[in-house]
Amino acid sequence: MPTMDPTDFRNKQNSLAKAHARESNPINDTPLRRFLVLAALKIWKTFSRQRGGVTFLPGRICVKYSSLAEASTLQFISQHTSIPVPRVYCSFTHKDQTYIVMQKIHGEMLAHGWLSRTAESKSKIHSQLREMVAEMRKLPPITCRVSNVDGGILYDGRIDGPMNFGPFENIQKFHQYLRGGLDAHETNLDDVKELIAWHDGTWNMPVFTHGDLSSLNILARGDKVVGIVDWETSGWYPDYWEYTTAKQTNPFNLFWKDEIDSFLEPLPKAQAMEEIRQRYFGDY
């Protein structure tokens, strides 16, 4: 039997980790910008289109209700890669709500019309995505920590436990968290023992990971990828994490599961291990 309840273990680990987490900083945060953004939202929010925690203002501006870490990630990716992401104009926190004021990218989600694309069109999209992922994975990590872009707390509502969690001093500690603290001597299940042995093995340094490369988060105009959006689940993760998270498609995106191997390196062993983890330690 586990020495500690999984929920208690995760809560304890998060409490300890929070004390060492690095904070993300606001971007271009001035009193005037705050006033203008909040005033614009008050005036336009009733009339403006909203989708997925984003309010679209007149012109090519939108405001996302997210975290300073996501804004920092967008800036980091923009500065260090050629991956197309929304430009961040400013980000700040007001009354416990974080606002990211950013560029609205003109493009359509790949989910719209993907099945009607020709094989040639799909191949062009796959090729661009492969290049973008390869570029992102070449970003050098500063430490072996599993963390957000700034070394701070991660976010993922799909993982069992609090949506905000970590950071972790290494990949093995992250894996232990995912299992709710369970160690090999605490189980008689052969597949769980196999998972733990894999989890506790030797790992390369973390790689920067989007964490949700769904067709809903990739924007295109024609055959050109013009934007990768929704970076709230991003961070420095084990090198398999991009693949296994992309494979977990939502009900509105099931067709995309068949496309993943066309732009991410297939990792059948990692996928098999993740399926064991999901079976015993949470829905995702």
Describe the structure.
The protein has 2 domains: 6-21 and 107-281, Aminoglycoside 3'-phosphotransferase, Chain: A, domain 2, CATH 3.90.1200; 31-103, Phosphorylase Kinase, domain 1, CATH 3.30.200.20. Helices cover 35% and strands 17% of the residues. It has helices at 6-18, 31-44, 68-80, 119-137, 171-178, 190-199, 241-247, 268-281; strands at residues 50-51, 54-57, 61-66, 88-94, 97-103, 108-109, 154-155, 164-165, 207-209, 218-221, 224-228, 235-237. This is Aminoglycoside phosphotransferase domain-containing protein. Residues 1-25 are annotated as: Disordered.
Kindly state the number of beta strands.
12
The biggest sheet, with number of strands, parallel, antiparallel or mixed sense and barrel status, is: 5 strands, antiparallel
Under the CATH scheme, which architecture of the largest domain would be assigned?
A: Alpha-Beta Complex
Please tell me what the overall shape is: globular
| End-to-end separation | 22 Å
**Whole-number tally of structural domains:** 2
Write out the strand line-up for the largest beta sheet, numbering strands in chain order.
Answer: 1-2-3-5-4
Compute the CA-based radius of gyration.
20 Å
CATH-defined topology of the largest domain? Aminoglycoside 3'-phosphotransferase, Chain: A, domain 2
Order of helices and strands: HHEEEHEEEHEEHHEEEEHH
Low-confidence stretches: none
Please report the number of helical segments. Answer: 8
> What is the CATH class name of the largest domain?
Alpha Beta
Beta-strand percentage range:
15-25%
**SS content category:** alpha+beta
Overall average pLDDT: 94
| Residue share in helix | 25-40%
Protein name: Aminoglycoside phosphotransferase domain-containing protein
Region (Disordered): 1-25
Domain Aminoglycoside phosphotransferase: 69-238
InterPro entries: AGP_Transferase, Aminoglycoside_PTrfase, Kinase-like_dom_sf
